Request: fold
Amino acid sequence: MSEFVSLVTSELGEIAVIPINALNNTGLEQLNPFLAPENTVIFLGSSGVAKSTLINTLTGTSVQKTEDIREDDGKERHTTTVRHLVSLPSGSCLIDTPGMREIQIWTTLESVQDAFEDIAKFSQRCRFSDCVHEQEPGCAVRKAVEEGEISAGRLERYKKLLKEAAFERGKAEIGLKRFEKIRYKGISQLANEISGEEKMGCIPVIPDMAELSGPG
Reply:
């Protein structure tokens, strides 16, 4: 377990990694700082990873329904289908959520770079400012990978997230252009309709105020 934690920690940087066992209470005390009174914590994760089992352990009761572990992959069956707000004895609140079957990126290119500060730091040393860390000469990021300062897997995840973020940005820009096109098309049609009604005399033309006031 310690080797696994070290591996995950090396990939996540300063993010806390806490190994726990909800069945024998191993490691639960490490959650206490997060479960302080008046704090609200949310559980997110894939289906069948024992989020509900952990909540039952923390509350000391069976407030959440759980299922047996599947033999083929060692995970619980998908059980939670709606969100639940649970009060814990510590005075904190915990939100249990349905298991996620798919995770899609919802962020900006800048946010991805912020999440990979180590790669961004080495990127500043690359020979070319537009280096994508593939085959470019003088790439400081690939050099860092070769020297073991950045794992190859982390670099690949960084590239993958950048591509996904760029794809989502492209979709958003296309959607905005379509929206603007539809909006201006609607405005143009409305203007044409008003112009046609004015020509037909359906809409009165308001005279100038000076004409209404008369002489002197």
User: Anything to note?
Assistant: The helical segments are 2-12, 51-59, 109-115, 117-123, 140-146, 152-199, 209-213. The chain has two domains: 2-96, 109-199.
